[in-house]
């Protein structure tokens, strides 16, 4: 569970996120919605501790992370969460397999980790048999699916996604929405910034960033 209490974020002198109080519950998909430029990505980044907040606090499991040390925040990123962001967080010069498992010999190219599970998550995300390929060969939509494969492999407890279906065709969109649903059904927290009507429809809670309104289905 991720909770924002009275959170405001300024970029320069501009208040981009204003006094947000929001709980993103475990087992639910929460959509951050609103017109372009209203602050969805900024709020998503603040909820993921990628951006400092200027007012208020972010809580994870009742622990106030606004006061956390750098090492506590790093542990949160490494052990608890996964990000599917617009700039992907994918290492282009590494293989697909490495990008999922994040394990290999220091100077080798061999993919390490749990290979059966790696192949399973690649199949789930429509990237079967591509573990040896360089990530730079993937399209934008494939890279987003690769980031989701990493999140599933990692068993992340909180998933942050920024416009995750923006560059997908209808078939892959459906597949990815179903995977997000599975994630939430396992009891994990899913937070998604999106304009996609089909994805919004699949969410349990919608938060309108501009008006600070919450709609629960
Ligand atoms: N690094 C930055 N420097 C200056 N302004 C920024 C920066 N990041 C965001 N902004 C501004 O903050 C506002 C909110 O941006 P944000 O990306 O959070 O909006 P968004 O709702 O996610 O938009 P979109 O739907 O178009 O992705 C915008 O006006 C944007 O120009």
UniProtKB/TrEMBL annotation:
Keywords: ATP-binding, Nucleotide-binding
Domain ABC transporter: 2-217
A Pfam entry, by short name: ABC_tran
GO cellular component: plasma membrane
Transmembrane segments: none
Top-rank taxon: Bacteria
SMART domains recorded: AAA (SM00382)
Keyword Plastid in record: no
Keyword Nucleotide-binding assigned: yes
SUPFAM superfamilies documented for this protein: P-loop containing nucleoside triphosphate hydrolases
GO molecular function, one term: ATP hydrolysis activity
Record InterPro entries: AAA+_ATPase, ABC_transporter-like_ATP-bd, ABC_transporter-like_CS, ABC_transpr_LolD-like, P-loop_NTPase
Listed name of the protein: ABC transporter ATP-binding protein
Species name: Lysinibacillus alkalisoli
């Amino acid at each position: 569970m991720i909770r924002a209490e009275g959170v405001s974020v300024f970029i320069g002198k501009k208040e981009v996120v204003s006094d947000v109080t929001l709980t993103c519950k475990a087992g639910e998909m929460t959509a951050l919605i609103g017109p372009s430029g209203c602050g969805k990505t900024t709020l998503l980044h603040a909820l993921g501790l990628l951006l400092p907040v200027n007012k208020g606090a972010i809580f994870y499991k009742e622990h106030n992370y606004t006061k956390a040390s750098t090492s506590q925040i790093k542990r949160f990123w490494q052990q608890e969460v996964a990000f599917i962001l617009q700039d992907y967080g994918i290492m282009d010069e590494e293989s697909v397999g490495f990008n999922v498992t994040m394990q290999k010999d220091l100077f080798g190219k061999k993919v390490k980790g749990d290979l059966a599970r790696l192949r399973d998550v690649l199949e789930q995300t429509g990237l079967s048999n591509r573990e040896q390929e360089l990530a730079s060969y993937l399209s934008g939509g494939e890279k987003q699916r690769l980031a989701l494969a990493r999140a599933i492999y990692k068993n992340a407890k909180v998933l942050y996604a920024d416009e995750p279906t923006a560059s997908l065709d209808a078939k892959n969109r459906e597949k990815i929405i179903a995977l997000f649903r599975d994630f939430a059904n396992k009891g994990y927290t899913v937070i998604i910034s999106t304009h996609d009507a089909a994805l919004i429809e699949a969410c349990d809670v919608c938060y309108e960033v501009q008006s600070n309104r919450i709609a629960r289905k």
